[in-house]
Amino acid sequence: MMRYEPQAYQCCTAASVYYSARQLHGLNRLGDCYCPGVAGLPCFSASGAALDIDRLAHAMHPQDRADFGLLLDMAARLPSPLLSLLLRLFNQAETFRFAPLRLARLGTAGVVYSLYYGFAGPGGAQVRNGLGWDAAIRTVLPGEPPMNQLVRDAAPNLAPDADEVVAVFKRARNAHLDIAALSLKQRLAVLDNLCQVIVRRRAEIIARVTEETGKCASDALLGEIFAVIDNLEYLRRHACKVLADRKMPTPLAMLGKQSRVWYEPLGTILVIAPWNYPFYQAIVPISIAFAAGNAVVHKPSEFTPLRGLIESILAEAGFAPDWAQVVYGTGSVGATCLAQRPDKLFFTGSVATGKKVMAQAADLLVPVELELGGKDAMLVFADSNLERSVAGAMWGAFTNTGQSCTSIERCYVERPLYDRFLALLVSQTRKLTLGTSSDHDIGTMTTPTQIEIVRAHLADALAKGATQHTGQDWDGQSAAIPPIVLSNVTHEMCVMQEESFGPFLPVMPFDSEAEAITLANQTIYGLSACVWSGDKARAERVARQLKVGNVSINNHMITEGNHALPFGGAKQSGIGRFKGEEGLRGFCNVKAVMVDGNSAKIEANWYPFTTAKYEALDKMTVASRIRGLGGIIRFALAGLPLEQLANKLGKQGRQR
Ligand code: NAD
Hints:
The strands form five sheets. The chain has a seven-stranded mixed sheet, sandwiched between helices. Strands 7-6-5-8-9-19 form a six-stranded mixed sheet, with helices on both faces. The N and C termini lie far apart (99 Å). It is 48% helix and 13% strand. It has 25 helices and 20 strands. It is α/β, with parallel strands linked by helices. Strand 8 (344-348), helix 16 and strand 9 form a beta-alpha-beta unit. It binds nicotinamide-adenine-dinucleotide. Nicotinamide-adenine-dinucleotide (NAD) binds at residues 272-276, 299, 301-302, 330-331, 334-335, 338, 348-350, 353, 356-357, 371-374, 405, 499, 501, 527, 569, 574.
């Protein structure tokens, strides 16, 4: 049986609606005295139960809530032995018959035990807690997931109600004013702290991500840590320049005025995220939106909530609790969040859900950015380096167990290279290892739905005549799906048309450049693609004809890896661009500004309109189209009398 030792509250300093990070810290310390981790159960602070305090606090009378907060403050400050002693004293209250002590014991123990045992449900063994009380709870049996896993699995059922979501957005709107009052440099300093916290806590983050997604450690390190740090580094280096006020050209007709663009925060950004990169999909949009001066409400996927982790990391970096709040729950909670009319929705997920959220957002006139699914094609020409293109194909298709929006989902190889490419691909794929440790290549699938899609796509392909070269030992149910290489595939098969999101690599030959382009474009998706060839001019020519948002040449997914580049989809793969200059400015109200002098001048296009003025304006309109020095002279000759006339008419007003 597993035994959990008390931890240093590392996962439980998350933002709470009612209590500060310090008070949550106090709650964890208090809880650890009652529940120090025995009989296969985690200690209180390791269970993540403190994060659920808002459920209880919400139901408390405001005065009780405040009083309990005082107690938590006290618990945060008292040295552990003293706190423990005090609670033992509470426990002896009956002996001393001192009512306040007894009440304090009932109150604190009641809250702590409700949080701690509230998740576990009925039945199970009698367990003696830290103070010697018996409690009927469900114990963790050998081989079962640990208690904190059970707690997180219960998370979708602990979704906030509509009133709580309203309160979250109210706090976000207030927080936005505080964030906007910070200078960009101050915000970037917070993001720099965030980068340091992530580097310091990377092992813990990787462990949580791996536990919830099933991905292998290397995928977690590269996709969730390295990529996030890289993005924060891009912001640190470039955000000031990208968000700086810009001077814009001013036309001759507006001589004397100045033109500017200001990049201002939008307000509150709602981020709705998928399950495939739960840490990256939280931190990257939160940090870009925050750099631009916005408050964020983040709704993670119900499958990989990383409950408490994001709040804890942000709090440690110096984010105030309301700057970026996390709301847990299923799609319906996402819809409730959207109903609060955020200033922008940043949604990442499937095409089907993208359509739903866009319809809801249209009704509310909330601007949307949609980062949706893909069916990325890899085009390999015969002059490509064989070993490199095969290695690239395997990584591009199987990374994150194929559960990346930009995974290679279709591979087209020029016929002269096809047989050798397929043979090497099959032999190399057979060498890949399955598992989640740092010594494994491919992790497990994350959701049962996705396993079922892979099973159905495989069955469909085989029924329609595909040849399966690897992964024949998969039982069609296990989350550990071996990488599957298919040949003899056609565009009538689901595996060549619909997003599989699994470790599949169907390979198909092509005979000409034109055919390769046609095949690659033959899908509703347009997220990204890659072209492999020794002929750079040809590769670029082909790349220009692919209807996608991102394309890599002689590599895959590197556009996504470079945070200076915009990322997004064409066709049904999405709307808008994320990251890079476009992404940063996408979280801004792009404000056009013109500055004029405080002169006595009356503008030529103001009232009154007269026939003489019309004729002068007409001359100026024609002159404005003439290019070169002659045009400037003609424009000046037309403009000067017009200006005099406009001033005279403007000052005397229309004559009646
Ligand atoms: P999904 O569409 O099922 O869910 C995404 C999120 O939307 C989840 O948080 C879910 O709870 C929420 N949601 C569901 N219904 C909702 C509703 N009616 N209103 C508001 N929110 C709602 O997607 P998924 O299965 O979590 O993720 C996999 C998909 O995401 C794949 O299609 C993948 O290609 C795509 N994806 C795209 C990118 C990209 O950048 N283009 C990146 C990662 C994943």
